[in-house]
Amino acid sequence: MASQEILREEPSRGSFINDPRIRSLFFQTLVVILLFSSIWWIVHNVIENLQRLHIASGFGFLRSRAGFDISDTPIAYTSDSTYFRALVVGLLNTIIVAVAGIVLATIVGFTIGIGRLSQNWLIRKICTVYVEIFRNIPPLLVIFFWYSGVLAVLPPPRESIHLPFGSFLNQRGFYFPRAVWGDGSWLIGVALLLAIAMALFVAHKARQRQKATGQQFPVFWTSVALIIGLPALAFLLSGMPLTFDFPKQSTFNLTGGFWVKPEFLSLLLALSFYTAAFIAEIVRAGIRGVSKGQSEAAAALGLRSGPILRLVVIPQAMRIVIPPLTSQYLNLTKNSSLAIAIGYPDLTATAGTVLNQTGQAVEGVFIMMIAYLVLSLVTSFVMNIVNARMALVER
Amino acid sequence: MQEHDMSWVRTEMALAQPAPPTERGAYAWVRKNLIGSVGDAILTVLGIAIVLWIVPQVINWAFINAQWSGPDRTVCTTAAQGGIQPDGWTGACWAFVNAKFGQFMFGTYPVEERWRPILVAILFVALLVPMLIPRVPRKGLNAILLFVALPIVSFFLLVGGVFGLPHVETARWGGLLITLSLSFVGIAVSLPMGIVLALGRRSKMPIIKWLCVVFIEMVRGIPLITVLFFASVMLPLFLPEGVTFDKYLRALIGVSLFAAAYMAEVIRGGLQAIPKGQYEGADSLGLGYWQKMGLIVLPQALKLVIPGIVNTFIGMFKDTSLVLIISMFDLLGVVKQNFADANWATPQTAKSGLIFAAFVFWLFCFGMSRYSMYTERRLDTGYKR
Asked: What CATH number matches the domain at A83-155+266-390, 1.10.3720.10, 2.40.30.10, 1.10.510.10, 1.20.58.2050?
């Protein structure tokens, strides 16, 4: 009996110093003690420093008057607005430039990436040169290049460059006609929504029918016809309530129309051209990652090259492409903070101004970090949903 | 009935025939690579148009019309702008780069002391080149000299204040000197820190694991500018009254912390790719944790993720340009600062200066990426499936 109990005991590990559980407990306790003592030390220092500088901590400052102007304001803002509103304006500007940049970078990146796989030697080489140039220079430099190298040396407003469709390009930015919607234009919006709903319904029915009977239905062209046709019909029925406000040249400046400032333009172009080089490489890797057997098998089944690409290669390539594409989107969003270097009022720039004016360094940096973390989390959340829909469904 | 006569058997190989004329020579290549189909031909025409549109312009601007030297802005401006060039002239103003070259390299480092950064650069190249060539022996000694001895020597050489060298405060450093020193120290610090963080993230001790996860995910979720803001605005608040440290050091801490978080994720990828049998094999040999990691797992894992590590290095090298935001003048910062010089204010100045800076950055980054491709091929361990 006694000998069996001895056997059931844990084998001796010699001294308790060598027991992994005790060691792990010891190290973790040590880390916790170190962490808390350094946090305590830092908090203590911060409180003391703030008292010395007579800065009240807390977020109360957000309700006081900002007193500075912001050049791009997507929502109403004056220098009499609160700090909070200034930060919201900054956040909105960041979101605008990030979303526009993501769309543009995706278009350019996919084009270049597919170009790098082209049969055509010349196109392949041009795309390679593009990628190798833009991958290897800092994004900030690209922003400066557009801002002070290209846009700043354009002619002054009086000698604006005329572009098609009544748009102008000059030192002060890009001007294009603004659409002015008249009465009854809400009908067009309703028609568009209706068309999208109907297109989705048609796609659903067509899928069901194909599953049941194997007959295909031209979903794509039907959807195009619906989405263009219905709003166009509504447009005609409501008496064409659309006029354009064209930019006009006056003595010193252009008036009217829609004005894109050079700060926004150079930031958008730089971010999307820079990120596009990385997206191109991702797309290339994704398409190369689909084994050749897949397209050969599809060809053996009698599919033509269009359907092979659409039904066999791209769905598999997207699985490889989406995770790194997500991190490029996140990088673009984070790189939009470079706006501060050319004075586009994004979140970092406005938060920096607020921080300088109030001296609320801790709260300012905290707000910045939280805002970017939330933006990153939202982007990865959306891309994770896309990824889950694309992912391999295995048994 | 057909009769088969089997008496004749070919005993020697048939002579190789040349490829048909449509499949060889320049024309076949052109047909295959440029005009394979109608769409291809259109693309080719488009491509030729792009090349013909861009290349002559670039060559004209950068070489033929460029001004290589001159005393001030007059060489780079047209007569209407107050210079000596004919109206309608556009060309690169390399004279600007030429005149400011010293500043672009060293910032406002005192001219009579510039031999010190030059000496550091020579030492750096002398130690780096044998490190990069695989055939040169004594890699261990070389690495110690490069990563331990060189930083110490460079520190005393660059900062001065000892051995009769005059003190040069870091506020006077600038240009490529800051870009290179920040990224070298950043690389040397972030790699070991990234390894520690990656090991911590895969550790079985929950507290250490979660600390590493929180640190990595938080740093990766925010832009570098925010980290630099943090380092330049918050760090002074964190320290007791009277204790301050250099702005350069603060930027260094910010950049290293940032790169370490990215490095950790790259290395974690490598650690996860090592088969479990390697870990178990090390355990069964009776190796301790650090022996197991240092001798068995890490050498294999690091080899696997060399491209990722170099990509992080390249990213960090490019990111050092952001210290401009906290008003330090690296290469890009100095170039931009000099746009304001009234003596050189021409429409071409900004473009020329930026293209020069872009070329320098490009050279370093492209070099790094090519070297990593070479190493990858050399160390190819056959893990690829």
From this structure: 1.10.3720.10
Domain spans, chain A: 2-52, 83-155+266-390
Beta bridge partners of A260: A174
Cα-based angle B332, B334, B338 (whole degrees, multiple of 5): 115
A167-170: strand order across its sheet: A161-163, A167-170, A173-176, A258-260
Residue B3, sorted as left (phi over 0), alpha (psi -120 to 50) or beta, turns out to be beta
Confidence of residue B260 (pLDDT cuts 50, 70, 90): very high
- B199-238 pLDDT, tens digit each: 998 888 888 888 998 888 888 888 888 888 777 777 777 8
Q: Which residues of chain A have pLDDT under 70?
A: 1-14, 250-254, 256-257, 391-395
Q: Are A342 and A267 in contact (CB under 8 A)?
A: yes
Collapse the DSSP code of A177 into the 3-class scheme (helix H, G, I; strand E, B; otherwise coil) and give the result.
coil
Lookup: tokens for A4: 């069996």
Tell me which residue of A131, A390, A101 sits closest to A282, measured CA to CA.
A131
Residue B258 contacts residue B182 (beta carbons within 8 Å): no
User: Residue with structure tokens 């499936």?
Assistant: B385
Concatenate the DSSP letters of all residues of A8-54 into one string. Answer: HSPPP-SSGGG-HHHHHHHHHHHHHHHHHHHHHHHHHHHHHHHHHHT
Q: Which of A22, A369, A372, A381 to mutate to test the interface with B (most CBs of B within 10 A)?
A: A369
Cross-chain CB nearest to A153 (options B50, B347, B361) = B347
- Name which of A332, A328, A325, A296 is nearest A312 in CA terms: A296
Angle ∠(A275,B175,B238) on CA atoms, nearest 5: 80
Q: How many CA atoms lie within 13 A of A41 on its CB side?
A: 10
Burial letters B4-21, b for 16+ CB under 10 A, else e: eeeeeeeeeeeeeeeeee
Judge whether residue B381 has pLDDT over 70: no
Q: How many CB atoms lie within 10 A of CB B137?
A: 8
Q: Which 3 state secondary structure label does DSSP give B286?
A: coil
Amino acid at B7: S
- Comparing CA positions, the residue from A257, A199, A253, A273 lying closest to residue A231 is A199
CA-based nearest distance B189→chain A, Å: 21
Distances (CA, A) of A313 to A282, A303, A387: 15, 12, 16
Closest chain A residue to the Cα of B365, Cα to Cα: A136
| Token code pair at residue B336 | 């931009």
Q: What is the C-alpha R_g of chain B?
A: 29
Q: Kind and range of the H or E element at A254?
A: strand A254-255
B210 touches chain A (CB under 8 A): no
CB atoms within 10 A of CB A56: 11
Residue type, B36: G
Categorise residue B327: left if φ over 0, alpha if ψ from -120 to 50, beta otherwise.
left
A-facing residues of B in 250-289 (CB < 8 A) are none
Cβ-based contacts of B369 with chain A (< 8 Å): 135-136
Average pLDDT, chain B: 83
A91-110 pLDDT, tens digit each:
999 999 999 999 999 999 99
In total, the C-beta contacts within 8 angstroms joining chain A to chain B are 159
Q: Which residues touch B155 (CB under 8 Å, ≥6 apart)?
A: none
Give the list of residues 6+ apart from residue B301 with CB closer than 8 angstroms, or none: B267, B270, B271, B273, B274
Question: Residue A1's pLDDT is what?
Answer: 45
Tell which A residues from 31 to 70 touch B, by Cβ distance under 8 Å. Answer: 31-32, 35, 42, 45-46, 48-50, 52
Among chain B residues, the shortest Cα distance to A376 is held by B221
Give A373: exposed, middle or buried? Use CB within 10 Å, 0-12, 13-18, 19+.
middle
